[in-house]
């Protein structure tokens, strides 16, 4: 058989178990070759604890993960794009996902039983999906690392109703919703760190959850760099959003304009605390968020109410030791709502209303 024929045969077969590659007794590593539906075919034969090693090349697939396993590409040369006839569990007409990690859910897509535990996805690219590149629903311990997710119609990398998630060292850009999203997760205890996120709707979006951390990320060119939002809930078990930690991020030039869709228009916002409580914003660098487009609010760091939309007033938040320069109309903006909010020891020039001691003297 020729080399070309061998490659074709492997593409049709979709995957092969790698010899002597078990990481534990009963756990296999499967080599998955580029082609149409080859990831889905491999998942159909994989067992909990297995690893799918995706070779470099283009995969046309929309694959659903329902068991604990590892999907590892060969770097961003491993590219997953929409298949010609998507039929994944998470797909619907006009809404196609790349990799979908899903535990037990009801007909409305809400958690309705045990989560899928310990799924790891890394070292690959998802692009061109009408919905999200990678999405998780009802997961525990989901890890997404070293993934490039771009030009998707929904989120780049997202998870809902999940706990113990880690999104790290990813690059998300040009996604219509958020580059990185964590939502609907009371006691989520999840982390977004060391990511690049640019030219999305929102760079990092944390909504209707508690105990989430965003640290050491770089966010630029979005409508909002980092958004912490209490929307008023909606999913079963939602709690008022808060207890977030937003630290050591670099957030600049988030001047893309998002027109009103399901919410008001947004543009020119670095970090937004929108109706959240007990959130710490510390040691961030927030510069050049100064759009002239229409927006609900504007500025480097903004503290605003969402009570008008069914959310809440911001309460007991702390904004301290940040560097914020060149943001308009102010480096720090507060709409005057809520109580217990503390803003102190920031290296900034302008604040609304007044200075109120919020900026160090210049």
Key descriptive features of the protein:
362 residues; mainly beta; 23-stranded mixed beta sheet; 11-stranded parallel beta sheet; 36 strands; disordered N terminus
Could you characterize the architecture of this molecule?
With 362 residues, the chain is mainly beta. It has helices spanning 3-13, 38-45; strands spanning 15-17, 29-32, 35-36, 51-54, 57-60, 63-65, 70-72, 78-81, 99-102, 116-117, 120-127, 134-137, 139-140, 143-150, 157-160, 166-168, 171-173, 178-183, 190-193, 196-198, 202-207, 212-215, 218-220, 224-229, 245-247, 250-252, 269-274, 280-282, 285-287, 299-304, 318-320, 323-325, 332-334, 342-344, 347-348, 351-352. It has two helices and 36 strands. The strands form three sheets. The chain has a 23-stranded mixed β-sheet that branches.
Structural class: mainly beta
Q: N-to-C terminal Cα separation, in Å?
A: 76 Å
DSSP summary, beta strand count: 36
Low-pLDDT sequence parts: 1-24
Helix amount, in percent?
Answer: under 10%
| Largest beta-sheet details | 23 strands, mixed
* Binned strand content: 35-45%
Overall 3D geometry? elongated
Mean pLDDT level: 90
The number of distinct helices, counting runs of at least 4 residues, comes to 2
Rg calculated over all Cα atoms = 21 Å
């Amino acid at each position: 058989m020729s080399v070309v024929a061998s490659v074709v045969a492997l593409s049709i077969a979709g995957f092969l178990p790698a010899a002597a590659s078990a990481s534990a007794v009963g756990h296999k590593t499967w080599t998955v070759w580029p082609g149409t539906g080859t990831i889905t075919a491999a998942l159909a034969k994989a067992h909990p604890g297995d690893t799918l090693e995706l070779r470099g090349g283009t995969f046309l697939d929309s694959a659903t993960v329902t068991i604990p396993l590892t999907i590892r590409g060969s770097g961003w040369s491993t590219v997953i794009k929409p298949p010609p006839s998507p039929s994944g569990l998470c797909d619907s007409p006009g809404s196609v996902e790349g990799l979908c990690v899903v535990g037990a859910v009801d007909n409305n897509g809400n958690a309705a039983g045990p989560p899928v535990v310990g799924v790891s996805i890394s070292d690959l690219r998802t692009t061109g999906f009408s919905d999200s590149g990678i999405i998780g629903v009802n997961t525990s311990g989901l890890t997404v690392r070293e993934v490039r997710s771009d030009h998707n119609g929904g989120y780049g990398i997202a998870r809902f109703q999940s706990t113990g998630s880690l999104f790290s060292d990813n690059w998300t850009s040009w996604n219509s919703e958020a580059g990185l999203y964590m939502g609907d997760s009371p006691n989520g205890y999840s982390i977004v760190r060391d990511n690049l996120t640019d030219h999305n709707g929102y760079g990092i979006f944390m909504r209707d959850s508690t105990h989430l951390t965003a640290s050491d990320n770089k966010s630029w060119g979005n409508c909002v760099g980092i958004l912490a939002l209490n929307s008023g809930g909606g999913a079963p078990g939602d709690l008022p959003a808060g207890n977030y930690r937003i630290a050591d991020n670099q957030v600049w030039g988030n001047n893309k304009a998002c027109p009103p869709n399901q919410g008001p228009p947004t543009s020119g916002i670095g970090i937004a605390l929108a109706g959240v409580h007990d959130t710490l914003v510390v040691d961030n660098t927030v510069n050049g968020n100064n759009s002239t487009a229409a927006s609900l609010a504007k500025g480097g760091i903004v503290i605003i109410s969402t009570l008008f939309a069914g959310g809440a007033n911001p309460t007991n938040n702390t904004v301290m030791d940040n560097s914020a320069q060149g943001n308009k109309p102010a480096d720090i903006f507060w709409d005057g709502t809520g109580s217990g909010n503390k803003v102190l020891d920031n290296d900034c020039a302008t604040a609304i209303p007044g200075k109120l001691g919020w900026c160090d003297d210049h």
